[in-house]
Amino acid sequence: MKLVAQLEELLYQAQHSPKKEETRLSAWRILVHESESVSLGLKDNSPGSVYTPPSYRQGQSGEVFLIWADGTCSQAIVQLPSHNDSEYWHKELEQWKQASYEDPDAAHIPSPEPLPLVAVEDREIQKIIAGDDEILFDQVKRWLTDKPSKAKMQGSIQAAWGYRHVRTSTGLAVSYQQSQFMSWFSFDSLVGGGFAKRRLMDIAEQEELWSRTVNHYEAMDHEAPPVGIQTQVILAPSMTEEMLGQFVLPNFSGDRVIEGQGAFSKENFMDHKQVFHPQFSLSVDPLRPLELGSYLVTAEGVPADRTVLVQNGQLQTPYLRVKDAVRWGSKPTALPQGAAGLYLQHQAEVSWENALQSVQDGVLVLSVLGLHTQEAVSGSYSLSAPHSLRILKGQIVGRTDVKLTGNFFTDLAAQTTVMARSAFETHPYLILKTGVQPL
Asked: Phi-psi bin for 341: left (phi > 0), alpha (psi -120 to 50), beta?
């Protein structure tokens, strides 16, 4: 809270009784994070090595957005000073003014609105931070005890707890606690599993993630028949998330749409253009309890609210920050926290267990090479997917290497695309008819 208090006092004075008239503020916004985290890692079956030592970290960091009396703006990253200099913040204020710029569309601070009730903290994680951290060491011990005997294992666990403070000159003053728990592991860097939410994993989730990953790893020991032109491609949930992050997330940014740099124009949104199959919808939903993409209020002071980007395959709105909303002529929307905040839904989705049994000729893609090099606006991809898993007659039968070619927007518009859901995954499996050939 010390950083928050110092910034509030500084900016209030600069707005109402500045030391120098040229540093008078008309409005301002503060975002400060306070966090503590503990982590434990595993490298090549060795816990707590020089590369993955148990660690504890704490810190404060923040950012300010300033609107000066002359209408210009400044933004800066801030940290608590390590020394007691009574003039430190006033010197910073002068430097921020020197770096000011003109941006009339950005010069807006929203008025406070009621905040939703969203669960973003798990008290069990706070106990870990307070010293009850045996759960982390027990988890690593179980990994090493239960892992396949010949596997070289990598892994990491992190628990974090902290406060988020948002203050604005328009009267918003909110502070709330939030938590985060992340766990991932891999065998021989071939297959792996991960979990990332604002709560601890429960036992059922741990067992499902572990058994599925071990089964995938053991299947890698068997060479499978090559794919053919009729082979269905199944994107694992982690791959669906990566594809959403590469192709969907940037093209639904209001800034890109307004500047004409995305796959869709503003007119496309105004006309509710059909871009996905009518059974697909896409939303940003920060109201889901204890999900990584959930929050109470954005850094700009906008309350969390569910925003539908695509409804029944038709464009509704991009996600809009305050500046984008001013230019768009509407209210700001919810903002995704990366692809973790995007939710793809299908009216006829099925369970993964049932979907797997129905696949007669398929390949399960767990990871690809070079996704970040693909051109996001077109949606087209050409990707190598070594270490994929062949599916025949509803069973995973072994390992195969494939190359994928297609277009992700076409995939989401195709009638043949099936979406399957696992109860333990945030993102779905996507079953596609797309270009696939042996690598």
From this structure: alpha
At a CB cut-off of 8 Å and minimum separation 6, what does 148 contact?
A: 187, 214, 217, 218
Q: Break the chain into its structural domains and give their ranges.
A: 123-219, 223-439
DSSP-derived 3-state class of residue 23: helix
Q: How many CA atoms are closer than 13 Å to the CA of 162, on its beta-carbon side?
A: 19
Of 38, 33, 60, 35, the C-alpha closest to 128 is: 38
Average pLDDT over residues 131-136: 92
47 or 366, higher pLDDT = 366
3-class secondary-structure state, position 420: strand
CA distance 179 to 238: 22
Per-residue pLDDT band for 393 (boundaries 50, 70, 90) equals very high
Using one digit for the tens of pLDDT, what is the confidence trace for 57-70?
Answer: 999 999 999 999 99
Give the amino acid at 56. Answer: Y
Measured between alpha carbons, how far is 183 from 187 in angstroms, rounded to an integer? 14
**Percent of the chain's residues with pLDDT above 70:** 100
**What is the predicted pLDDT for the residue at 53?**
84
E-state strands within 189-253? 191-197, 232-235
The contacts found for 411-415 with CB under 8 angstroms, 24 or more apart, are: 412/275, 412/276, 412/277, 412/280, 413/274, 413/275, 413/276, 413/277, 413/313, 414/277, 415/277
Side chain identity, residue 135: I
Rounded Cα distance, 164 and 180, in Å: 13
